[in-house]
Amino acid sequence: MSDTPSDPMLGRLIDGRYQVRSRIARGGMATVYLATDLRLERRVAIKIMHGHLADDNTFKSRFVQEARSAARLAHPNVVNVFDQGQDADMAYLVMEYLPGITLRDLIKDYGRLTPEQTMDILVAVLSGLAAAHKAGIVHRDVKPENVLLADDGRIKLGDFGLARAASNNTATGQALLGTIAYLSPELVTRGVADARSDIYALGILTYEMLTGEQPYQGEEPMRIAYQHANDTVPVPSSKVPGIPAIFDQVVAWTTARDPEDRPRDARVLLDYLQSGGAVVGPPEAGAPLAGTPLAADPSTLATTVLTPTALAGTALAASAAPAALAMSNAASTVAASAAGATMVMPGGFDEIADADTQIFGSRPLTGGGSDDGDDSPPNPGAKLTEKAHKRKRRGYWLFALVILLAAVAGGTGWYFGAGPGSQVAVPTTLISSTPEKATAQLKALGLAAKLGTEYSGTIPEGLVASTSPGKGIHVDKGSTVTLNVSQGPQPITIPVLAGLTEDAAKEAITGLKALVGSIDLQFNDTVSAGIVLAAGSEGDGADLSQGGPSFEGKTVNLAVSLGAVPDVAGKSVDDAQAILGEAQLTGESGEEQYSDTVPVGRVISAAPVKEGPVRQGDTFSLTVSRGPEPVEVPDVVGKTWADAKSILENAGLRLDYNAFADTFPALVTVTTVTPGVGESVPRGSTVKVTFSL
Question: What's its top-level EC category (predicted)?
């Protein structure tokens, strides 16, 4: 996302430590920025609560709860939280910065994921979730937006904003928080959440990764909630044939409507997946999975007659429930819109969720005997006829079995000969390998290699940057895979940046797919505020003020003018310090000097204490006037007026005398001076002179 020039947070120093660089994302409760930790010299992500929520104690406590919940976890699959605090009226949270995308972005790009990709992400998320469950934390908001995929391949679970301690999981009477598409039945109906609620959301997430869509969809959120409470989540293979059976088992097991039928926490499911089913897991193959209703035996069910009254209480009530929910939803729309996907569920949902439940009575059916009570012995001919029929039925079964085995053998031959079984997946290990090694890998799999080129800012020059088809894609044996070899970053030419406005310089940099780095704000007496003074390339220090060659992805740092330092000459010391303080500068009283032009106690000049560019926070030394320098009245008594006048004026004194003396300056002699000879007076003072002939 590009920076918003009007965003007041850009360039701001938070808590005297975190320098905000650019905006990453904006959510319903907070905005996330990229910042630099000046103390530890590292990049961090800083999450700042929206100003209009700062006075809401509920949001504040949830914000602090996120920091405390995540800080209790130290796991490679959980986003690290470094710091939390408040700067003035602004609450913030400092987290690990992970450049990359979310799982939601990946699903949008690919449509649906391969089983291998799904398994990798599922194991990583389960590992982080298992650590949270072990620490007694229920996440309560597991969804693709909260699964982060870093550029270096790390997978992490973040956003513990809705997390609660497991001992405080009962939420009866409170608003249900979370995304409606991933809420478990018990959260919808009773407002209760524990570790098994996270497991349910993970099951929905698994279904979405494999199929590219959520199992329940609709324009009305309450309709989706109703389906979660009453319907059984379909297995992924019903949507996308060919998905391995283990994923059907996992989805059915994790999304069972009864929490008792699900894994008790993330560790149980993780152990099951990592052991290949060797540990306790869902029922064995062939047995119904947890959460899958058992098939009823018709022989054990008696006919049930439903009266109109009973129908009105069951089926009709169930069909009318969505409409009732939609009407009750009108009262909660405002609360829902304020928090994005967070919904407030209306009361009485327990009754609606159970509306389609039907209870069937059972009555064993008796066999043998007739209705007329005939106790006569069985007919021997009838027994022989019955045995012949049995042998005939057995022959049909054997014939059907042979046909079935032949079909299985033929299908297996087709699958591995010409069907999907004949395909191979493009290896994921080709990226970052040499072209020679990648070609050898493809040859071993029966694939051909062709070399191509592309620019890459992440893969070193000479190594494979990407493949076509992409990694993990299944292709027929004998197909050709193009290995795109990295040519290094794409060369670009940076234009002249010095003299541009800060916004124009940023636009020029990002328009060439380079990155804007630090913004160094400096005072300058000749360049107006907001104008770029200089630009440099991060890392190699190349001067780009007048433009020059660079590469895509390269970071360019800017020095921007703050305008001239305020002029404080002639001001009192207090006024000068106040004026400098408004410019975020500090004024300190320095030496005192005599001045014939600046009154006593006023500032003569201000100079920076340290050399180099002047930045906000720097200190200035103030030179203060002591007034005019004092001089002694020279001894001119007895001298001619011509000599006396020259001596007194050279001493910086003004004269008060009879103008008659100027007529005969060489004949007139000085008699007295007032003030007297040798007295100290300020330079520029007036001395009265008397004469005699």
Answer: transferase
Residue 518 CB-half CA count within 13 A: 18
Class of residue 65 by CB neighbours under 10 A (exposed 0-12, middle 13-18, buried 19+): middle
Confidence class of residue 381 from pLDDT cuts 50, 70 and 90?
very low
Token pair listed for 134: 């072990």
Q: How many CA atoms does the CB half-sphere of 274 hold within 13 Å?
A: 11
Question: What is the C-alpha separation between 89 and 60, in angstroms, rounded?
Answer: 11
pLDDT band at 286 (very low <50, low <70, confident <90, very high): very low
Q: How confident is the model at residue 359 (pLDDT cuts 50, 70, 90)?
A: very low
Distance between CA 420 and CA 133 in Å, rounded? 39
Of 329-338, 397-406, 414-423, the one with minimum mean pLDDT is 329-338
Nearest CA among 666, 664, 660, 670 for reference residue 692: 670
Q: Please, are residues 201 and 269 in contact by the beta-carbon 8 Å criterion?
A: no
Measuring CA to CA, which residue among 168, 77, 189 is closest to residue 130? 77
Max mean pLDDT range (90-94, 275-279, 571-575) = 571-575
pLDDT at residue 377 is higher than 70: no
Rounded CA-CA distance 329/323 in Å is 10
pLDDT at position 496 is 95
For 108-115, the CB contacts below 8 A with 24+ separation are 110/212, 111/212, 112/209, 112/210, 112/211, 112/212, 112/240, 113/209, 113/210, 114/425, 114/472, 115/210, 115/243, 115/244, 115/247
How far apart CA 608 and CA 502 sit, in angstroms, is: 25
Degrees, nearest 5: CA angle 113-118-121: 125
Distance, CA of 647 to CA of 637 (rounded, Å): 11
Closest of 148, 122, 145, 128 to residue 74, by C-alpha:
128
Helix 266-274, helix 115-134: angle, nearest 10:
140
The tokens for 475 are 């292709």
Compute the mean pLDDT over every residue in the chain, rounded to the nearest whole number: 78
**b/e map of 495-531 (b: 16 or more CB within 10 Å)?**
eebbebebebbbbbbeebebbbbebebbbbeebeeeb
Residue from 7, 120, 141, 151 carrying the catalytic annotation: 141
Known catalytic residue at 596 = no
Residues 6+ apart with CB under 8 A from 189: 229, 349, 350, 353
Provide the sign of the torsion angle of the four alpha carbons 384, 385, 386, 390, taken in this order: positive
Q: If you search the block for the tokens 């005398």, which residue do you land on?
A: 657
Say which residues have a Cβ less than 8 Å from residue 575's Cβ, sequence separation at least 6.
568
Neighbours of 581 (CB within 10 A): 12
Each residue's pLDDT tens digit, 604-658: 999 999 999 999 999 999 999 988 888 888 998 888 888 888 998 888 888 888 7
User: What pTM was estimated for this model as a whole?
Assistant: 0.43
